[in-house]
Amino acid sequence: MGRRGKAQCKTRDGVAQRLVPAFRLPGRMIQVIETDFPEAQIFIPDVFVDARGYFKETYARDKYEAAGLNEVWLQDSVSASKRNVVRGMHYDMRMAKLVQCLSGRIFDVIVDVRPGSSTFHRWQGFELTAGNHRQLYVPRGFAHGFLALDDCVVHYKMTEQYDPTHEGVLSWKDPSVGIRWPLDGAPILSPKDANA
Known about the structure:
The chain is mainly beta and 196 residues long. Helices cover 5% and strands 43% of the residues.
């Protein structure tokens, strides 16, 4: 994922953030938050709040390209999950994703599954909520999954159409990865994920 354009930099809780001017909208910013992986970022779009609620653009090509996200998205998908559902860890080495929580809260996790990578099997987790509007860019070569902290709806943009012949599954509890899931009760799993 390339980056371009000038950005204002700041830190919050020790995490580097970039504020990128939104395309052709002076004074409007897309926030870009760095992660432990140089290839992965969190994007926070501008949110317009008033007495009725809020309005936001969940994606606009020119604005996101100006913020450094240069992808062609081929498929959008939505999942609804009950509290304590764990989905993952899934990957397709051809595919990048942009993930956001539209309702509820999730603990969203990525794992580097690129053979030979210096960060192979390292993981990082993020809380994505309907209220924080954070969007996680999941690069190619990373497994992705989440725990539903509440009943939730999750939206995914994908750079490839789903093809089960290209899908890989990493166990959500693989001891060599050691993801610390903030579970409160027994997880709810699909047969595929339970048997991975």
